[in-house]
Each structure stands twice: as structure tokens, then as C-alpha cells.
Design goal:
This protein has no helices and 16 strands. It has strands spanning 2-4, 9-11, 18-20, 29-31, 36-38, 41-44, 61-67, 72-80, 87-94, 100-106, 112-114, 123-127, 142-146, 162-167, 175-180, 185-190.
Length: 191
């Protein structure tokens, strides 16, 4: 064990573990302590900062990579969105040996894409690019896009359960479409 500065940083020479604020690190890197406040962010425990890019840049990424003994397999990435001071977040997986694929994209606008890095609305799920323009507007919350012959939204529950699509305004229960598994009926309600 090699300690520095009153056990603030500990290098365990037996395990190879590093402890920051911890005298018995239980992993390769073990950080323990009270978080700091930096640039309006509270409870900050670690910072990964890429010195290649600045806040004025419109392109660039900062990744935390996960891998196996023989290759890198997945990553979490903060990326510049093409506009100054706009940063998004991506989860990247592996679609084959050393074949990265973006699984989900979280844009600074709040839009989330699954299967697309350019989500058109709040949630955009893409299983193939149709090439058609989406009906983009403030009133569109979900886009399901596929190049398959059909596209569906599935609800599942027990044989005694119900599924609902609910509609609301100032009355949160203004109307609904319900499917009851107990008698296989489809019901509509309006107030």
C-alpha cells in the first residue's frame, strides 16, 4: 500500500486498486467523499474533461469507454451538437466485434432517440429509416418509425388485466380506450 497526503489518495500495490478519499478501495477506482459544486452542478464526484474542445466548439466528443480483455465494446459519450454550448449524451453499444452502434441519444433539447441520433420529437424510436418526413410539431410527442411492412405499439398484461390509452385536458380522465383481457372487450369512454 502506498498512501499520499494523509490517505486522501491510496494506491493498493497488491490489488492495483486506487482509492480517493477511501483507505480500502474495493475496485480499480473507488471515490468516496462529499461532492463539490462546480458551474451550477451540485454533488460532483468526478470530472472527465477533454482539453481538445472548448465551449465555443461545435463538434467533438468526450467518452468513457468500457471494454473486454481484447477490445473496447461500449461507451458513454458527451458530444457537441453542432451549435456552440449545446451538448448531448449518447449510449454506444457493440453490434459485432469492434462495430460500435449508438443505442440511445439524448439531445440538449430534451429529445430522446432510440435507433436514431437525430430524434425529431420528445421520443423517436427508429427501426429503419423510412426516408419520409416526420410530422414534426410541438404536439407530436412520440414517433415510431420502421421500414417493416407494419408498425405496432403493443401493450401486454395478465389475462385479468386491462390496457388503456387515456386522454385528458383540464380533466385528466376526459376519455379513454380500454382493452379488458378478462372478456376480450374493447371499450371507449368520453366524459
Amino acid at each position: 500500500r502506498w498512501n499520499t497526503d494523509n490517505d486522501r489518495v491510496v494506491f493498493d500495490l497488491t490489488t492495483g486498486n486506487v482509492g480517493i478519499g477511501n483507505t480500502s478501495p474495493g475496485a480499480k477506482l473507488h471515490i468516496y467523499g462529499t461532492g463539490s459544486s462546480i458551474n451550477s452542478q451540485t454533488d460532483v464526484m468526478a470530472i472527465i474533461q477533454n482539453s481538445t474542445y472548448g465551449s465555443g466548439d461545435t463538434a467533438g466528443e468526450n467518452k468513457l469507454i468500457f471494454g473486454w480483455i481484447n477490445h473496447y465494446a461500449a461507451a458513454i459519450s458527451a458530444f457537441k451538437e453542432g451549435t456552440v454550448n449545446r451538448t448531448g449524451f449518447k449510449i454506444i453499444g457493440e453490434a459485432g466485434y469492434n462495430v460500435p452502434t449508438t443505442i440511445a441519444t439524448f439531445r440538449s433539447t430534451g429529445n430522446v432517440g432510440i435507433g436514431t441520433t437525430t430524434p425529431d420529437n420528445i421520443l423517436h424510436v427508429r427501426a429503419g429509416d423510412t426516408g419520409y418526413a416526420s410530422q414534426v410539431g410541438a404536439d407530436t410527442m412520440l414517433i415510431l418509425e420502421t421500414t417493416n411492412v407494419s408498425n405496432s405499439l403493443q401493450f401486454s398484461s395478465t389475462t385479468s388485466g386491462n390496457q388503456y390509452i387515456m386522454f385528458g385536458d383540464d380533466d385528466p380522465n376526459a376519455g379513454w380506450i380500454a382493452y379488458a383481457h378478462s372478456d376480450n372487450s374493447l371499450n371507449f369512454r368520453t366524459n
